Amino acid sequence: MAALSAWFWSERFWLPHNVTWADLSEQAPGVEYPKPAHLFTALPLALGIFGVRILFERFIASACARSLHIHPGVGRRAQPNAVLEKVFTSITKNPDTRHLDGLSKQLDWDVRKVQRWFRHRRNQDKPSTHTKFCESMWRFTFYLGIFIYGVHFLWQPLSSGMYYFYVIQLAFYWSLMFSQFTDIKRKDFRVMFIHHLATVGLISFSYANNMVRVGSLVMCVHDASDFLLEAAKMANYAKFQRVCDSIFIVFSLVFFVTRLIIYPLWVLNSTMFESWDIVGPYPSWWVFNSLLLVLQGLHIFWSYLIARIAIRAVSRGKVSHYFMSFSSSVDKNIWSFNSSLIIAHCYF
User: Fold this and answer.
1) Tens digit of each residue's pLDDT (9 = 90 or more) over 93-140
2) Residue 56 and residue 136: Cα distance in Å, rounded?
3) Which has more confidence, 109 or 332?
4) Taking burial as the number of CB atoms within 10 A of a residue's CB, which of 10, 101, 138, 280 is the most buried?
5) Using an 8 Å Cβ cutoff, are 232 and 251 in contact?
């Protein structure tokens, strides 16, 4: 184990020339470097965040939803049927004509009745608008709060405020792993679990490697538009189309400014060119900047998609409709987009 640890934490890979781990442990008065042990605080904090989320959604978000006439409601459930349930869970959720005819004869049901059962069974697993509104309101509240908090401490070295910013972000992703087992199960359950696990590891490594200044900046750049996306979702669930349209336009502008201007001109310029002059390249430097460049490529790709959707929506006067199509597209491609995004934005 000692040999494996020494190989993994090789100074020749992680640190610039003439810098050792001992240098980071010898702290001058008033200066503190990150230590991996600091991150253990995130585990109990994650449980606390998970508990806060449950209370927030049950009492605050739910009350807000009801005030906007978004009631929980109980959708029509499919009547219990062992034969159809087995087909639904193990064969297909959308039976074709051949399956429908076979089930109709087997159960002595009309084909339309079989179709209706499958439709009710599919809808039974879908989260209600009330549930989606509460989840979006929780994410909106967290993203907005952590963004304001992070901007406040952005220009500081490792202070207690910067430490809490990192640990709270880490604890939030731990809490997402916990909440996956209580939330409504979605098709991307396994993918998102791996995604959250990777995020936890990468945030931890970025902190332990003293990349807190760049890491905090990148997280703030991404958080700047995340809460706007959730706000637009809430407006759509509440059927406030004009509000949804307006927020989506603001979201698009913020997305473009942060991902296509601030990120390349400030973050990439600092990590690729200014750092070259200050410390020079070293193995992990090449890995870090390669990931940041991949992230910039994703920014360009998604900006293109948003621009195309926005132009089409404005020209047809159906921004909220196309916004939800974009949101659904993000959800369906969450792994391909977020895995690369998280790798770069948490690793730094």
Assistant:
1) 889 888 899 999 889 899 998 998 988 888 887 788 999 999 999 999
2) 12
3) 109
4) 138
5) yes
Q: Which two tokens stand for residue 92?
A: 């297909």
Q: What CA–CA distances, in Å, run from 232 to 122, 229, 241, 253, 309?
A: 26, 5, 9, 14, 15
The terminus-to-terminus CA distance of the chain in angstroms comes to: 27
Q: Which residue has the higher pLDDT, 21 or 136?
A: 136
Assigned token pair, 154: 């952005």
Instruction: Identify each DSSP E strand in the chain by its residue range.
Output: none
CA within 13 Å, CB half, 55: 6
d(CA 84, CA 228): 42
- Distance between CA atoms of residues 147 and 255, nearest Å: 14
Q: How confident is the model at residue 171 (pLDDT cuts 50, 70, 90)?
A: very high
Per-residue pLDDT tens digits for 172-188: 988 888 787 776 566 65
CA count, 13 A, side-chain hemisphere, 91: 14
Q: Which residue has the tokens 């920014």?
A: 299
Q: Which amino acid is at 224?
A: A
Q: Is 196 within 8 Å of 181 (Cβ atoms)?
A: no
CB count, 10 Å around CB of 163? 18
User: pTM for this one?
Assistant: 0.77
